[in-house]
Amino acid sequence: MFITFEGGEGAGKSTAIKRIVARLEEEGYEIVLTREPGGTPIAEEIRNVILDRKNTNMDPRTEALLYAASRRQHLVEKVIPALKEGKLVLCDRFLDSSLAYQGGARGLGIENVYNMNLFATEGMLPDLTILFDIEPELGLARIAANSQREVNRLDVEKMAFHKAVRQGFHDLAEKFPERFFIVDASKTPDEVFEAAIGEIERRLKK
Ligand code: TYD
Q1: pLDDT, one tens digit for every residue, the chain (206 residues)
Q2: Ligand 1 centroid vs 119 CA: distance in angstroms?
Q3: Does the Cβ of 154 fall within 6 Å of ligand 1?
Q4: Is residue 186 within 6 Å of ligand 1 at its C-beta?
Q5: Residue of the nearest CA to atom 15 in ligand 1?
Q6: Is the peptide bond before 37 cis (omega within 30 degrees of 0)?
Q7: Strand order in 31-35's β-sheet?
Q8: Is the CB of 93 under 6 A from ligand 1?
Q9: Beta-carbon neighbour count of residue 178 at 10 Å?
């Protein structure tokens, strides 16, 4: 099974993922935890180019293509082999981030970005996508309060951008209701974790 985690900035995604991995390992699942962009050496190099704060003049299509390139390398080198070995692959961000950020918020169009990504993914989609949903105002306030978390180029984009990202994710959840599970990430860390792990365990037992 291939499970992805999505959401806006400051939704508490990383904290919840750590606890999810710990719980599933306790239960005996063999987990591969990975992330996008990155997850393999080549893909991490691409990540550095995309998220470098110096690269303020990056063209939106260049950005979308780089995410897709990183995705391709990561899928082939890490995700697909692990799934073939019967492992449970958990990925922090995947295709839906490109659809919401580049397709929605950057204005390239969800359909366009989806089609461009087909070359990279060959149609592969997650079995389950957990969306950590939070109002951008609240998410960004959390990041500001937590100075340990590195602030990247995309974090400092305008509020309207983050609102468009959230709208993009909502549109996707509506489009793929079977695959998406929305968690209200404005709740406490415990509640967020329980909601997410509850759904994952339900799907694993199906
Ligand atoms: P990261 O520091 O990993 O963010 P987070 O902790 O929020 O997951 O940075 C990843 C950034 O890249 C994040 O702002 C979302 C963005 N992104 C896209 O715009 N498109 C994509 O396809 C992916 C995978 C990420």
Answers
A1: 999 999 988 899 999 999 999 999 999 999 999 999 999 999 999 999 999 989 989 999 999 999 999 999 999 999 999 999 999 999 999 999 999 999 999 999 999 999 999 999 999 999 999 999 999 989 988 888 876 766 666 666 678 899 999 999 999 999 999 999 999 999 999 999 999 999 999 999 98
A2: 20
A3: yes
A4: no
A5: 97
A6: yes
A7: 31-35, 88-92, 2-7, 128-133, 180-184
A8: yes
A9: 7
Beta strand 31-35 pairing with 88-92:
parallel
Q: How far apart are CA 84 and CA 106, in angstroms?
A: 35
CA of 152, closest atom in ligand 1: 2
- Answer whether 101 contacts ligand 1 (Cβ < 6 A): yes
Q: Which has the closest alpha carbon to 95: 59, 69, 71, 66?
A: 71
Rounded CA separation 25/135 (Å): 31
Question: What is the torsion angle, in degrees rounded to the nearest 10, for the CA atoms of residue 106, residue 151, residue 73 and residue 85?
Answer: -120
Contact status, residue 152 vs residue 93, Cβ threshold 8 Å = no
For ligand 1, pick from 97, 112, 156 the residue to mutate: most ligand atoms within 8 Å of CB: 97
The CA distance from 121 to 68, in Å, is 8
Unique residue bearing structure tokens 């990561």: 74
pTM over 0.85: yes
